[in-house]
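REVIEWER CHECKLIST
Item 1: Sequence provided? yes
Item 2: Single chain? yes
Item 3: Sequence as submitted:
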Amino acid sequence: MLMAIFWSTIATGTLLVGMVLAYRNVVTKRWTGLIMAFDAFAAGALLVMLTDSMIPESFEHGGKAAVLSLVFGFGVAVTLSLMQMA
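Item 4: Structure as written out by the authors:
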């Protein structure tokens, strides 16, 4: 639980910094790369928080099938994101 609170705090802080930089980007248009880096870090922190808190419980209740479906869902999400970029 403590790790989830830690990563939630990191992700929230990073998202707030990203929002401020995005607002500045509307005004100046030179912060795009930095905004993308902050958003990517925040997304990674959210994934770590969810993984740390949810995967052990889902494995306990659902076994290997629950973890495999999580990995499959993550793979589908990555594939759809890459298809959208192309």
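Item 5: Key structural point noted by reviewer: The radius of gyration is 16 Å.
Item 6: Recommendation: ____
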